[in-house]
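agent> Task received from the user: take the single chain below, predict its 3D structure, and emit structure tokens. No templates, no multimer pairing.
agent> Plan: (1) validate residues, (2) run structure prediction, (3) serialize to tokens, (4) report one or two observations.
agent> Step 1 OK, no nonstandard residues flagged.
tool_call: predict_structure(input=
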Amino acid sequence: MLRGLYDWTLSLAARKSAEWWLAFIAFVESSVFLVPADVLYLPMALSRPDRAYRYALVATVASVLGGIAGWFIGHYAYDAVARPILQFYGKYDEFEQLRTSAGVSIEFIALMLVTSGAAHLPPIKVVTILSGALGVNLALFIVLAIVARGGRFLLLAWLLRRYGEPIREFIEKRLGLIASAAAVALILLYIVIKYAL
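)
tool_result: status=success, residues=197
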């Protein structure tokens, strides 16, 4: 099923309506969809490098709006909508542990939002729903989402404009690993500052 979703999402890049599809995928990725918008963004930006920043802006705006939708789902429709979504993806038990944990602070949610937006660690939809369920300040949430998602898409745009096709394999195979390592480092730094100092 996942491979089918991935292939379908990738096939959208060749359509005339690709920009609208990018906005749609970026929106639903932040609240309910499994496949990241990068799958669509990368081939679009490679085929039209002159539009890489435009596509990054489209993906950022749509992703932040989708994140706001996720926040509202978590805040106002947890039992009716969020629980079935999380159960479908097999993330419900992890989510409930986070939601009921006394150690989850606004700072930790902010860190998760940044690492999720930058490296998909944890998946962005989990963090947006959790932010709403915990009542994270919506204005703070929006600012962090803009920084995290905008930073990711603008970095991809810059890499693709500067290095073009040769960077594609690196982005597809190694950038996620590097971003994940940076996210883990940020989380460890947060833990050290919070509990060890």
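agent> Step 4: summary for the user.
The chain has one domain: 2-196.
agent> Done.
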